[in-house]
Amino acid sequence: MLRYALLRILGAIPTLLLVVAIAFLMVHAAPGGPFDSERALPPDIEVNVRHAYHLDDSLPEQFLRYVNGLWRGDFGPSYRYRDYTVAELIRTALPVSMQLGAIAMLVALAVGVSAGLVAALRKNTFTDRLVSGVAMIGISVPIFVVAPLMVLVFAVTLNWLPASWAGGSGPGRMLMPVVALALPQIAYVARLTRASMISVMSSDFVRTARAQGLGTLSIVRYHALKPAMLPLLSYMGPAIAAILTGSVVVEQVFGIPGVGNLFVRQALNRDYTVVLGITVLYAAIVIVLNLVVDLLYGFLDPRIRDR
User: pLDDT digit string (tens) for 202-231?
Assistant: First the structure.
C-alpha cells in the first residue's frame, strides 16, 4: 500500500507543475495588461511600475520567480488591491466557498446515494422511473437557470428567503445557494449509484449470498455497498473540488463573497495574479482530491494497489 501511495504522489507533482506552466502562459498571452486603463500612465511611471512588479523581466524569469514563490505559499501581490497579496484575498474568500460547498456536497451525497439505492433495489418500478426522470431533469437544467428561478420564486414572489447574501443572516441566506449547488450533484450521484448498484447486485458473489439465505438489506450493507461506491469515488474527486471552490454562477447570482465571485471580479479588473492564483489553487485541489480517490480505491479494492 505504501508503494502504491508513493507512486500516486510522485505522479501528481509533475501534473501540477504542468498545470501551473499552462495557466501562467495563458494568463500572460491574454490581451491587455493589469495597468491598462482609459487614462494611460505617463511612460516613466509605467516603466517604474512594471519594474516594481518584475513585468519587464523575460517570461522564463517571471515563471521561475512565480514557481519559487509557490513553494513558499506566496501567490504574489494583487495588482488592483495594493495593500493585499493574492494569498490574503484567497484566504478571505475561500472559507465562504468551502462552507457552502461542504454543506452542498453532504446534502448531495445523502440524498443522491439514498435515491440511487432505492431506485436500484426497485428496478423497473414506478419509483425507479421517478428517480431516473427527476435525476435527468436535474442534469439537464443548468444552474444559471435554477438559481435565478429560485430567487424569483422564493425571494421575490413568496418573500420567504433573502435574495442575496447581504440581504440576510444565519442559515436563511445559505439555503438557496446550497440547494442550487447541490441539485446537479444529487442528480449525478443518484444516477451513478443506481447504475453501479444494479451492476453489483447481478454479480456472482451476490447470487451466492442470496443462496446462503441472506436478505437484501444484509447483502447491500455487508457485500454490495462497498464495490458499488467505487465508480462514485471516481466522480467525487473533481466534483468535490468544483463545489468546494465555489460555483461562479451561484456566487454571482446570490452575491456571495467567495472564490468564484473573486475570480470573475478580478478577471474583469485584469488582476492577473489573482486569476492565476485561483486557477493554480483549483488545480491543486483537483489533483489532491484525485490522489485521495486513488488511495481510497486501493483501500477498498486490494486488486488495484497490487498491480
Answer: 888 888 888 888 888 888 887 788 788 878
CB distance 272 to 34 below 8 Å: yes
- Determine what percent of the chain is predicted with pLDDT higher than 70: 84
Contact 65, 54 (CB under 8 A): yes
The residues pairing with 85 across neighbouring beta strands, listed in sequence order, are: 77
Give dist(CA 162, CA 295) in Å, integer.
42
Burial class (CB in 10 A: 0-12, 13-18, 19+), 31: exposed
Q: Facing residues of 77 across strands?
A: 85
pTM: 0.79
Q: How far is the C-alpha of 23 from the C-alpha of 30, rounded, in Å?
A: 11
C-alpha cell at 205: 458473489
CA dihedral sign of residues 212, 215, 216, 219: negative
Q: How many CB atoms lie within 10 A of CB 83?
A: 7
**What pLDDT, in 10s, does the model give residues 47-102?**
676 666 666 677 788 888 888 888 887 888 888 787 788 889 888 888 888 888 88
Give φ, ψ of 210 to 5 degrees.
-65, -40
How many degrees, rounded to 5, is the angle at CA 243 between CA 238 and CA 246?
A: 125
CA–CA gap between residue 220 and residue 280 (Å, rounded):
40
Q: Which of 300, 124, 146 is nearest to 224 (CA)?
A: 300
Judge residue 73's burial from the number of C-beta atoms within 10 Å of its C-beta, 0-12 exposed, 13-18 middle, 19 or more buried: exposed
Domains of the chain, earliest start first: 94-270 (1.10.3720.10)
Chain centroid to Cα 154, Å, comes to: 26
Q: In whole angstroms, what is the distance from residue 99 CA to residue 251 CA?
A: 13
